[in-house]
Design goal:
Layout (H helix, E strand, L loop, with lengths): L1 E5 L11 H15 L3 E7 L6 H4 L2 E4 L2 E6 L3 E6 L2 H4 L6 E2 L2 E2 L3 H18 L6 E5 L5 H6 L13 E6 L7 E3 L19 E2 L2 E3 H8 L2 E4 L2 H6 L10 H6 L4 E3 L29 H11 L10 E5 L8 H12 L4 E5 L4 H13 L4 E4 L4 H10 L2 E4 L9 H7 L3 E5 L2 H6 L6 E3 L4 H15 L2 H12 L5 H16 L2
Parallel strand pairs: 1-2, 1-8, 2-5, 8-9, 9-13, 13-14, 15-16, 15-18, 16-17, 18-19, 19-20
Antiparallel strand pairs: 3-4, 4-5, 6-7, 10-12, 11-12
Helix pairs in contact: 1-17, 9-12, 10-11, 10-15
Length: about 450
């Protein structure tokens, strides 16, 4: 099968979040399964010749290789992409984002004709690539080159929709009738993601539970009506995890490599984490770790309400991440009260993240909503039991056989579940059974890729 991946960020070239990890890893897994994949990506300022060994195809297209032979084509236009940042400057969206990404979508489609790559499937990601299915069914509807080409739109986070003033609609080069309730119109504005949802052949999101949640008012961010209309074309596939990066047997960042068979060596990582975080070295005290953005979506509203009660328990707590200033201040204040319990690191630190996954006993993810979540998958592999709120991908991966789940989004239920986890930690036999259940979980990209191939086949049969 011939597949085009259209994504506005792809590891290792450009990244702001989890979308880049998926768009970098899934093509590799599909190639391993024998599929022919290419990728298109805007050429941002940070994508330099020297860093990525770029080759020139034509004056506005360069390319690089990933995997065995996957060509990543870079759409170049200095006016749009030769600037710092991908979507924003100092927290404010670029004012010309509509033009930038409509240009990227159109140029990607034209490029297919120029290199004579007729895909079976165009797999588009999030709002930045959502105009591709719109253009295919409007501007390119009569183009024989694109006959029988099918589209799959993956929604990584329904909260990001690409909203623009209706006055900008002429810039898209679409007929006026496309600005309608059945098209891109959304309460008098342009909604690019809505256009993708209306025009793509198949839609999926990054976990089965999230696919159900976004059809509700609570989680749909105003698009639940469109998603319910298209519910028979909406699916959920969990993201995979790159076990070449997240593997305690070969991880170069941790104090002592280990596996399920050499689990005793995990203690050395706990000791190393305690020393690194200036906490008392004690193997018998359960250690809770968090690696997260400090934001309400990630559960820090209820966590900060509960933090004083949690710090009074017999445990240690390491938190790594940055986010909302109010949470920085609340947690910073708690460190002064409980310096031997709580260790706070307000930064991004990849090495320390690996140490937290390897050295903690419990990994806390109290997210209010979580489309997929990778933290729990990583913690499984490191024998660190996740404690999560029952939502999205967390609900699809964590259960009583491999971790702890709370079902009411309150500080009391969070405290109660932490208390339950600490009691389990005191029962060695039960704890080791849970750790074995966690470490035996397999969320490889190969498994995800096979499910995507099923969706591609479904789209082709339409």
């Amino acid at each position: 099968m011939k597949i085009l991946f259209a994504s506005s960020e792809v590891v290792p070239f450009a990244k702001t979040g989890g979308l880049a990890d998926v768009a970098g890893a899934l093509p590799l897994a599909l190639e391993e399964l024998g599929e022919e994949v290419i990728v298109t990506l805007p050429r941002y300022k940070a994508i330099t010749d020297t860093r990525f060994k770029l080759q020139r195809l034509k004056k506005d297209i360069s390319f690089s290789l990933i995997g065995r032979n996957i060509k990543v084509y870079f759409i170049e236009k200095d006016k749009y992409f030769d600037r710092e940042g991908l979507y924003q400057d100092k927290g404010a969206d670029f004012k010309d984002n509509l033009e930038r990404f409509s240009y990227y979508c159109l140029r990607s489609l034209e490029l297919l004709k120029e290199i004579d790559f007729k895909p079976d499937i165009i797999h588009v990601h999030d709002w930045q690539a959502s105009l591709i299915p719109v253009y295919l069914k409007t501007r390119y509807a009569q183009d024989p080159f694109f006959k029988n080409v099918r589209t799959l739109l993956t929604v990584h986070n329904i909260g990001y929709q690409g909203l623009f003033p209706k006055e900008e609609f002429p810039k898209l080069g679409l007929d006026e009738e496309v600005f309608s309730m059945e098209g891109l119109e959304y309460y008098g504005k342009i909604n690019i993601l809505k256009g993708g949802l209306e025009f793509s052949d198949i839609i999926n999101t990054v976990s089965p539970t999230y696919a159900s949640e976004i059809r509700t008012k609570e989680f749909g961010f105003g698009l639940e009506g469109v998603l319910n209309k298209r519910k028979n074309s909406l699916f959920g596939i969990l993201n995979g995890l790159d076990y070449k990066i997240w593997n305690p047997q070969i991880d170069p960042f941790i104090a002592k490599n280990f596996s399920l068979k050499t689990l005793a060596d995990k203690k050395k990582n706990k000791e190393d984490l305690q020393k690194t975080c200036l906490l008392p070295v004690a193997s018998d005290i359960p250690l809770i770790g968090i690696v997260s953005r400090l934001a309400q979506q990630k559960g820090f509203d209820i966590l900060t309400q509960a933090i004083d009660s949690i710090c009074k328990m017999k445990l240690q707590f390491v938190i790594l991440g940055t986010g909302d200033l109010k949470y920085h201040e609340i947690l910073g204040g708690m460190v002064k009260i409980y310096p031997k319990v709580l260790s706070l690191h307000l930064k991004f630190d990849d090495r320390l993240a690996h140490k937290i996954y390897a050295g903690s006993d419990i990994f806390l993810m109290p997210s209010r909503y979580e489309p997929c979540g990778l933290g729990q998958m990583i913690s499984f592999r490191y024998g660190t039991l996740p404690l999560v709120f029952k939502t999205g991908g967390l609900a699809d991966t964590v259960n009583r056989d491999n971790g702890f789940v709370f079902e009411h989004y309150t500080k009391d239920d969070l405290i109660k579940t932490i208390t339950k986890a600490l009691a389990a930690y005191g029962n060695r036999e039960k704890w080791m059974r849970l750790v074995a259940g966690a470490m035996n979980c397999n969320f490889s990209w190969e498994e995800s890729a096979k499910k995507y191939l099923e969706l591609y086949a479904k789209a082709k049969s339409l």
